Amino acid sequence: MVSAAAPTRPRTTGGDPSSSFQVLDRTFAILELFDEERPEWTATDVARALELPVPTAHRILIALARRGYVSQHQETKRFRLGIAALQLGDRARAVVDLRSVAMPALRRLSRDTGETALLTVLTPRKDRGVCLERVETPQPLRLSVTPGRQLPLHAGASQKILMAYMDEAALERALARPLEHLCHNTISDPGLLREELARIRRVGWASSFEETNLGVWGLAVPILDARDGLVCAIGIAGPSARLAQERIGDLIHRIHERAAEVADALGDHVPPVESRPKVGRAKGKPAPTKKPKSTGRKA
User: Fold this and answer.
1) Are 207 and 219 in contact (CB under 8 A)?
2) What is the pLDDT of residues 222-254, one digit of tens each?
3) Please, what is the end-to-end C-alpha distance for the chain in angstroms?
4) Do 31 and 151 belong to one domain?
C-alpha cells in the first residue's frame, strides 16, 4: 500500500515568512528605494541600504530588469526605474474611480458656490472634453449638464483648462482642427486661442462667458499628476444672471480649495492661482480688474 506523501512546505528561516514571501518583500523594498532624490542605485548600494547580500540584491535587480521594471545603464551599471514601472502607475490611476473620489468635493463645491460643480476629462482621443460627473445646484435657475456630454476643447472654462495643460503634441493636433463657432464669445481664431491658453497657464485657471451657450459662464482649474501631466478639470458653471464680478475671486479660491482635496486623494496637485482678469463679454479678451485673494496653495 502506497501512502500519500505529506505536502511539502516552503523553507523558512527562523521566524521569517516563507522564502517566496521574503523574496517578494525584498523586491518591493528595492523598488521603493527609487525616488526623486535618488533615482539611480548600484546593486552594492541597494544591498547596503537594505542589509542584503550583494548577490541577492543583484539577482532581484536583474529579474526586475527582465520585466522592464528597472533598467541598467550600460556604462555606469546603475539601475533606475524602467518603463514597466511607469506603466504600472498609469494602470493604477486608470482603475481608480475618479468619480467616486471627486464626488464629495464636488458636492461641497456646489454647496459653497450655489452653482453646478463639474468634473471634466479629455476623451481618449484628446480631441474634446467630456463631463465625467456633475453636482447640480438646488436653485431653480441652474445650468444642467448631463454626464457624458462632450464639447470642443476651445470653448468653455473646463474645456480650455484641459486644452491649456494637455501635452504639446495633442495641443498642436487640436489647434490644427477648425475651431467651431458655438456662441458669440467662442474663440475661433487660432492666434487668439494660443494667447488665451498662455494666459490660462500663467494664472492657473480658466474662465468663460457665453462661449458655449447664451447666458452661461464658467470657471475651472486643472489637477496635474506628479509629472505635471493633465488628470482632469474641476470647475463650476451657472447662468449669467447670478454672475457678480466681485464674487469671482472668492469662487476661484473655493474651486481651487475643493480641487486640492481631490488632488490630495489621488496623490496629485493643483497649480497655484494668480491674479485674475474679469470674466468679460469681450470676445477672447476679458477686461482687467483688481487682484483677487490668491491661494497659492499646492496640494
Assistant:
1) yes
2) 999 988 999 999 999 988 888 778 888 999 999
3) 70
4) no
